[in-house]
């Protein structure tokens, strides 16, 4: 999401708690159809659940849904928004995989390529990559689920990138 997107969201919704609702919709890939909110095509999310997750009153959620529906761009955007799919991050160990958690100083192009290259040099297969959007998360992380243990020299190589602050393995 670039700055022009968020500028438009602020123009339509205002600020504070209303923006938090938009961030929550984005974080989970929730779509808005009229006054209803969905995960995918058929799983309906209650306004109360959305309000609890966003930390706001359910009446504020209802107002934001109306504002989204009254704006052509936001209505179209949130109508077609979908979740990215299941994340293996929290279950990687159960499946016999490992998950690298990469923390950054700043968002820069090439971080994913750098990490992927360091893993590829040791013939380590990447099963999934989840990159948190810095416009949604205060401290975005890159999660890389791999098929086997990661040698320390790969971690050392990854840490050579100037934008990478820390790497941990879960």
From TrEMBL:
It comes from Thermofilum adornatum. This is ACT domain-containing protein. It comes from the Archaea. InterPro entries: ACT-like_dom_sf, ACT_dom, UCP004897_ACT. Residues 100-170 form the ACT domain. PROSITE patterns: ACT.
